[in-house]
Amino acid sequence: MKYNRILLKLSGESLMGNQSYGISPDMLEQYVRDIKEVVEKGVQVAIVIGGGNIFRGLSGAAKGMDRVQGDYMGMLATLINSMALQAELEKQGIKTELLSGLAIEPICKEMSRRRAIEAMEEGKVVVIGGGSGNPFFTTDTASALRAVEIKADVILKGTRVDGVYTADPEKDPNATKYTTLSFQEALAKKLKIMDLTAFALCEENNLPIYVFDMNKVGNLLKVVEGQSIGTEVK
User: Fold this and answer.
1) What was the pLDDT predicted at 64?
2) pTM score of the predicted model
3) What is the rounded CA–CA span in Å between residue 32 and residue 206?
4) How many independent structural domains does the chain possess?
């Protein structure tokens, strides 16, 4: 295995499947089957998932809502997704630990590095909701922070495209894919991989980011094994 401890970052929108809102049970089941495959190979897994399928703090703020209030609502949306992911993981026989930037008894304990690492070493998948627990920070930044805290080997950013391109491949047929990029190249080319705060945190801590298509069955295992199917930023 190329990676022994990973942080998997999923967007909330990815859970929608073909729906326009909410959580698709089929998508949830597919993702968990792929995660289970990796766990059974002995890889330690932590997951951070966004909340955009339920609520986005920024779009709420754009419509006149208080930004801080909107961001806390977004954090709660990530917790709903995290609970759904936890339920499906346990349904498929995988032990889990749900932690959060916001401690909400009796649902979950507050995120701490020690709790997360101990749970992973016991073979549990750690699902981390609630963002960073602070407004003004995205789940991209939360995933970078959590990955650094737990000493992950890599952030695996599961998207619906198979890597980073020179332009949006869904809009530009001439877009070409990068296999590897440095942090500085990605910044200079203004490639939108993660937000700048997350990016800076990864660069400062020598934490690579691997972008790949999570919607294709079996891709997560391929990435963990070291197959080149996406884009590595390091």
Assistant:
1) 80
2) 0.95
3) 28
4) 1
pLDDT in tens, 189-210: 889 899 999 999 999 999 999 9
- pLDDT tens readout for residues 61-84: 677 888 899 999 999 999 999 999
Instruction: Encode 196-225: b = buried (16+ Cβ within 10 Å), e = exposed.
Output: ebbbebbbeeebbbbbbbbbeeebbbebbe
Domain of residue 148: give its range: 5-233
Q: Which residue in 129, 152, 130 sits closest to 201, CA to CA? A: 152
- The residue type at 170: E
Predicted local confidence at residue 61, as pLDDT: 66
- Residue 170 neighbours by CB under 8 Å, 6+ apart: 161
Nearest to 142 by CA among 4, 2, 11, 3: 11
Q: Do 8 and 159 touch, CB atoms closer than 8 A?
A: no
Angstrom distance (rounded) from CA 74 to CA 68: 10
Q: What is the CATH number of the domain that holds 47?
A: 3.40.1160.10
Strand order of the β-sheet with 96-100 is 109-110, 96-100, 125-129, 44-49, 5-10, 154-159, 209-213, 231-233, 180-181
Q: Which has the closest alpha carbon to 7: 105, 88, 117?
A: 117
